[in-house]
Amino acid sequence: MGNGEQSAPSPAIVLVRPQLGENIGKAARAMLNFGLTDLRLVSPRDGWPNPSAGPAASGADMVLANARVYDSTADAVADCAHVYATTVRKRGVTKPVMRPDEAAAAIRAEPGGSAILFGPERSGLETDDVAIARTILTVPINPEFGSLNLAQAVILVAYEWSKGADLVQPSVTPIDPPAPQAELDGMIEQLDQMLLEAGYFFPPDRRPTTQRMLRTLLTKPGWNSQEVRTMRGVFSAFAKPKRR
């Protein structure tokens, strides 16, 4: 990223008239999994805060704690220059249609804040809510079964956003790089010599074919340096067994 260049702000996730606290919590969990934290709620059916949301969020408490509540969809997106309505139907409204990956790219490319609207669990967004948006956001889905629950819809969109967010893939332990080719060749040559002295290559004219097969076998995994040293220690122990 060049000097003075700023990354696009993360989009706000707007849940319009959500019905169940559990679904709000699951949506918050999906958001935080992929680096989104701006949660906005429009007239949640059971009020806010909702005691059922916390357990369902599975640790995404900061998203819930910072959630903002609005009386209308228009109020929730008043500060946003770009508003996307997630729906599987255009509902008679003629607007541009994008997939989540296309929307994520557009949000990054365009200045100003963005919001993504998600409708109630049972019915989805109302026509008036869709009318507020400038763009329809939809996903290719089975026409015979086009039902996504709220958290699933949020996670699809959040995942596409995360692809360009430089999130670090978690890892319990760092993975060592593969060993240099010279180390691997040395190990294979050591094995060749041991097998030759042990009379393994029989009949002798099959030796090249057997050696190629062994090399193919030993070069399949990406052995690291420690693994090569360990294997060579094993070979050395076979070659020079210790007396007890």
> Which architecture name of the largest domain does CATH use?
3-Layer(aba) Sandwich
Shape: elongated
User: Quick one: CATH superfamily of the largest domain?
Assistant: SPOUT methyltransferase, trefoil knot domain
Low-confidence stretches: 1-6
Record the SSE blueprint:
Blueprint: E1 12-16, H1 21-33, E2 39-42, H2 53-57, H3 61-65, E3 68-70, H4 73-76, E4 82-86, E5 97-98, H5 100-109, E6 114-118, H6 127-132, E7 135-137, H7 150-162, H8 181-197, H9 207-218, H10 225-239
Parallel strand pairs: 1-2, 1-6, 2-3, 4-6, 4-7, 5-7
Helix pairs in contact: 1-7, 5-7, 8-10
Structure description:
It is built from 10 helices and 7 strands. By secondary structure, it is an alpha/beta fold. It has 2 domains: 12-162, Alpha/beta knot (3-Layer(aba) Sandwich), CATH 3.40.1280.10; 181-239, no CATH class. The chain has a 7-stranded parallel sheet with strand order 3-2-1-6-4-7-5. The longest helix has 17 residues, at 181-197. It is elongated, with a radius of gyration of 29 Å. It starts with 11 loop residues before the first strand and ends in a 5-residue tail after the last helix.
